[in-house]
Amino acid sequence: MRDLFRFLYRQRNNLLFLALMGVAMAMLLGGNMHHRAQAISSSNAVIGRIYQWRHSVTEFTGLRDENRRLAEALAREREHAHTLLNDSDSLMLRTDSVGHGKFTFITAQTINSTTHKEKNYLTLDRGSVDGVQRDMGVIGAQGIVGVVSEVSPHFALVISVLSNELSPSVQIARTGHFGLLKWDTGDPATASLTDVAKHVLVETGDTVVTRGGDGIFPAGVPVGTVASVTNDPSSNYHTIEVRLSEDLSRTGYVHVVADLLRAERDTLQAKAAQP
After folding, report:
1. Which of 109, 201, 213 is nearest to 158 (CA)?
2. Domains of the chain with CATH codes
3. CB < 8 Å & 24+ apart, contacts of 8-14
4. Radius of gyration (C-alpha) of the chain in whole angstroms
5. How would you classify the pairing of strands 169-172 and 253-259?
6. pTM over 0.85
7. Cα(104)–Cα(83) distance, rounded to whole angstroms?
8. Helix (H) or strand (E) segment spanning residue 122
9. Which residues neighbour 49 within 8 Å (Cβ) at sequence distance 6 or greater?
10. Low-confidence ranges of the chain (pLDDT < 70)
11. CA atoms within 13 A on the CB side of 53
């Protein structure tokens, strides 16, 4: 208590000044309608600005929630789309024999990523407790993103397609000819399609999609479009540059792909590989 009195005594001049200023402001606003209106207008402007900031924050939070809902809706639509198989005999779309999908899609958000290194990675906000496992494919709204390499209970590390460690099998949608996608351009917007023989007619603008069957990506997921085709006389293969469909420099929502039949297929293939 003694310390409080000492503090108030030392600040007596400042406190007196504030008290007198308060009295003066009250007398000014009380006796002059113009000044009162100006004060009310100023206070309303400040309060309005605060409400605007609060609305912006609330709107951003709501937009983020809406983006997640849209991403989850897209995941369900992709699951539905991949319950349909292409019957090569009748060319009719049908569901698989047991009426279930072959893939499930787990919605996740990219919380960190790189695009300028030799080996680029993304970090997702979903982990093993959400069903994410190693070697699962990751796709964005526009195309493939990468493959899960490490998983913790609540996070996952993804090898980006912008990495020399990843070479997914892809094909030209128009012709069905396939090769490997390799990131050797140094440009986060492009990659190379290799192992496509020169007798194949490849045109600028051709769509490149995933080949499927590897247990990582479903068939037909967009990869990009052919940006250029050149031929080296010393090689039997085209030199093809692909402009990637997915902008990997942007942080957003992605889908982790779980192949429900992968274990069965891997077991059967392992038996076939035995001597």
Report:
1. 109
2. 104-259 (2.40.10.340)
3. none
4. 30
5. unpaired
6. no
7. 10
8. strand 119-124
9. none
10. 1-5, 7-9, 23-101, 251, 275
11. 5
